[in-house]
Amino acid sequence: MNAPLPDIARSGAAAALLPLNWVGMDGIALPLRLADAAHGCVAARASVQVNLPRPAIKGIHMSRLYRLLQPHADAAPLSPAALSRLLQEMEDSHADCGSNAARAEFRFELLCQRPALVTPGLSGWKAYPAALGAELDGDGCRLWAEVEIAYSSTCPCSAALARRLIADAFRQQDGAATPDAVYDWLLEHATLATPHSQRSQARLRFDIAADAAGWDLAARIDLAEQALATPVQTAVKRADEQAFAALNGANLMYVEDAARRLQAALAGHGLSRVDVRHQESLHPHDAVAASRLS
Q: Which of 17, 86, 91, 255 is the most exposed place for a label (fewest CB within 10 A)?
């Protein structure tokens, strides 16, 4: 009964003597407390791996990585410094395997309360897919944060074509063009043609300094939504829907325009990647644009 249990990862022989870049676990569920004071605990999925450079080692010890995650489950806030320490602990825990690199990623949804555009006291919650990650190797530790933002985009070309149809129809109408007559005609015919618009997504990645106090996800989301000007809304009444229509009309944009707006607004805030996708309502395919800043 007291005989030691077999440890095949240590005693077994590898089937092929080859190194592996990454070995570990993905999709580990845990509550995660962010270092940012404005946000508490989120339900996250973690991915943790180390490298396995020694060809003769059959496997790593997965339980060591799992146990290292537990101090970050709800109790201690995950700051950039804490994530850097976790990676060093992961690497150290597999020194007997020759591991000299580690990486980790946490994916979750960040809930933010958003007010209606014009209706006082009306608000709702919006979920932003987000991720925090880091990689440690001989070149040091690199940390990043990622967020996804949904917004509306109205095609500038489609808007111009719609305006031309409406203008041509007005020119052909009968009756005196008094202000009241124009007003009445527009009330009835201004939607003779409408530009196509669609829900769109922007995925943004930021480089994070190891000594940063927090991740500043909410602040970066705010800057991105201000740059786009047409983020999707939560609770709305008719006045808010009208205000949203006005924002779309004032901010016509191609996918290229959206990507450039985001790059210009966030380049000074650690932005390293921009990926924009417009899920076209005109086409059965999407329009995309991307930039890599680092």
A: 17
Alpha-carbon distance 74 to 53, whole Å? 33
Cα of first residue to Cα of last residue in the chain, in angstroms, is 57
Assess whether 250 and 219 both reside in one domain: yes
Within this chain, do residues 180 and 243 fall inside the same structural domain, yes or no?
no
Mean pLDDT, rounded, of the chain: 92
Give CA–CA dist 198/159, Å, rounded. Answer: 13
DSSP collapsed to 3 states, 13-25: ECCCCCCEEEEEE
**Range of the structural domain that residue 121 is part of:** 8-155+196-292
8 Å CB contact between 50 and 24: yes
Task: Give domain status of residue 93, yes or no.
Answer: yes
Answer yes or no: do 102 and 230 share one domain.
Answer: yes
36 lies in a domain?
yes
Domain of residue 62, CATH code: 3.10.270.10
pLDDT tens-place string over residues 198-257? 999 999 999 999 999 999 999 999 999 999 999 999 999 999 999 999 999 999 999 999
Return the structure tokens found at 277.
């996708």
The answer to whether the beta carbons of residues 60 and 37 sit under 8 Å apart is: no
